[in-house]
Amino acid sequence: MAAVPGAEKTGWKNYGTGETIAIPGDMEPETKITKTESKSEAIKRTLKSNLLLILLIISMGIGVALGAGLRSVDPPFTKRQILYLRFPGDLLMNMLQMLILPLIVSSLVSGLASLDTRSSGRIGLRAVVYYLTTTLAAVILGIILTVAIRPGSKGGAVEKTGESKVVEPADTFLDLLRQMFPSNLVQACFSKPVTEQVLRVDEDANITDVNATAVYDPVVEMKPGMNVLGLVVFSIFLGIIIGRLGKKGQPLVALFESLCEATMVLVKLVIWYSPIGIIFLVAAKIVEMEDPAKTFEQLLYYFITVMAGLVIHGFITLPTIYFIIVRKNPFKFIYGVTQALVTAIGTSSSSATLPVTMKNLEENNGVDPRVIKFVAPVGATINMDGTALYEAVAVLFIGQVNDFDLDIGRIIIVSITATAAAIGAAGVPQAGLVTMVIVLTAVGFPTDDVTLILAIDWLLDRFRTSVNVMGDAIGAGIVDHLSKKEIRKMDLLDSVEDTENGVLNIAYEEAGVKM
């Protein structure tokens, strides 16, 4: 747009009427919009730009109301009817999980391939330091709140609501290493190695002897479920190697960039279906609850402690870290990923929410795509602030219920093991229950008592997943801010290379050489 002759920094002069139109002083005259937007048009524009977010929030409310209403139906819903009720929500989960594989692989490979080795190393180091810092902060917060509130010493008698799974911490640690280096990439797309504890009776004892010793033998089996950790590790190394290949790797870079762009288009289509799916996911969960009033009576203080920790960490700790480092309004940044946070509450899976998180970070918060492609998938896999806080609170709660001595040594062990266990937790619904057994074993608490909190875990799982997603998003914003220097340097090198290629092409054309 050509500049209007005589236009000044403070306004444009309309030569037809002689009127000067005021413009903001921080913008150039040629970029000004002279049309005044009416209040009704502004409201319409705001509603249109936030339509999906509004629909997601409404769907949560409808889901709660629908579930509460269906609980009063006589006779109560059977398991088959609940299955039918959840079906639209299952379709949403299937569609989101379908996009995880192409999105993680394509985004990591294309993102790291576009970075030089030094830049990717610095970005990765910043991300890891952020993950460890915030996860440890969440654990410490959970411990402080549990010791202060003492939820295990208040409320009614807590009943066990299921069976506990036998888990050995050493086996779980080895499973993580096995999953990091899968033997078959194709198999890693739909199964992962998990050590199961198989019960057998001591051969030297009579099988009818009540004193026979029960022995658990470890057996490594391939269990259904995507091995996200293995795919992330492979994609990271592949992206770095392709980036170092230079021109020979450009075809692969273009392939993965195209795949990433195409996947994000599919994400946009799936997101518009998400309000419908969330309605039925939430409604089905509420209908499944046996006795909500009794459950909340028994676990009210535990619920309050976990929720207080999640709120403090999500809306005080993380925003404070963001403000100190970035020096910008953290709540404006959080507002930009609200769609992802609501989706996390509805789906209870940070991995399934990953496509929405990446879309929000790029389109709403302006985070560099190269940073998003690396930080977001890795964060959804290993950065679990909400899960770490929940595990710390749950373990100490179980200790308080059993009147165990919670000395400083055990509290330190809880903080260390809860941090490590949260990093190893998968980004799927209620994955924290399995890793929590590791923490219970480390401090010598009975692992069977994990069933004390199962009745309410499904609800808390949704909120801690939302905090996990918020931590991933804020981490991407912080790393993007700290990596501006490297990103500008890469952009400058790319522009110089493009200019040199352009000059070279012109020289060839002038010489009559076809390119």
Detailed description of the structure:
The protein has 19 helices and four strands. It is mostly helical. It has a single domain, classed as Sodium:dicarboxylate symporter (Proton glutamate symport protein), CATH 1.10.3860. Strand 1 and strand 2 (20-22) form a beta hairpin.
Index terms:
515 residues, mainly alpha, Proton glutamate symport protein, two-stranded antiparallel ribbon, two-stranded antiparallel sheet, 4 strands, globular, disordered N terminus
> How many strands?
4
Structure annotation, total helices: 19
Radius of gyration (Å): 27 Å
CATH topology: Proton glutamate symport protein
Report the order of strands and helices.
EEHHHHHHEEHHHHHHHHHHHHH
Main sheet attributes: strand count, strand direction, barrel closure: 2 strands, antiparallel
Helical amount: 55-70%
Describe the global form. globular
SS class: mainly alpha
The CATH level-2 architecture is identified as Orthogonal Bundle
Q: CATH homologous superfamily, by name?
A: Sodium:dicarboxylate symporter
Q: Strand-residue fraction? A: 5-15%
Number of domains: 1
Spatial separation of the terminal alpha carbons: 34 Å
Mean pLDDT: 80
Main-sheet strand order equals: 1-2
Name of the CATH first level: Mainly Alpha
Spans with pLDDT under 50 lasting ≥5 residues?
1-17, 23-34
Topology:
Elements: E1 11-13, E2 20-22, H1 39-49, H2 51-71, H3 79-113, H4 117-149, H5 169-180, H6 185-188, E3 191-201, E4 214-224, H7 228-245, H8 250-271, H9 274-288, H10 292-326, H11 330-336, H12 338-347, H13 350-363, H14 369-382, H15 385-401, H16 408-424, H17 432-443, H18 454-482, H19 484-510
Antiparallel strand pairs: 1-2, 3-4
Helix pairs in contact: 2-9, 2-12, 3-7, 3-8, 3-9, 3-13, 3-14, 4-10, 4-14, 4-15, 4-16, 4-18, 5-7, 7-14, 10-15, 10-18, 12-13, 12-18, 13-14, 13-18, 14-18, 15-16, 15-17, 15-18, 16-17
